[in-house]
TrEMBL record:
Pfam families given in the database record: Rhodanese (PF00581)
PANTHER family reported for this sequence: THIOSULFATE SULFURTRANSFERASE PSPE, THIOSULFATE SULFURTRANSFERASE RDL2, MITOCHONDRIAL-RELATED
CDD domains cross-referenced by the UniProt entry: RHOD
Ranges for domain Rhodanese: 32-122
Originating organism: Rubrivirga marina
Protein name, entry field: Sulfurtransferase
Amino acid sequence: MTHSPRFLALVDAARAEITETDPATVRQRMEAGEDMVLVDVREPDEWDRGHLPGAVAMPRGVLERDIEAAFPDPDAPLVLYCGGGYRSALAARALEQMGYANVRSMDGGWRAWTEAGYPTETD
């Protein structure tokens, strides 16, 4: 998929303000049993095709509306991911603007995770 220049500029601006992580680091944290919540911000049809083990589905379209009910602690360690790391960067920025202090966006998203051969699951 080719993204428009304005969309890419928006994502670049978000990335300048957030903290990103990568699939290898997320997997290491998972294997170490670190306290974190994986939040899949992709669309329901994407989720249905597979997701990271233990992840919670919260599509980008409802994230800001539903996040406080699901995770009221603004210090909750949240790792957001999407298909390629663009939507999750925008989502991380929005959550930081809402006062969430421990948010990461997984650069490369689902695509990078699966290309690395890391485990996935389906419901």
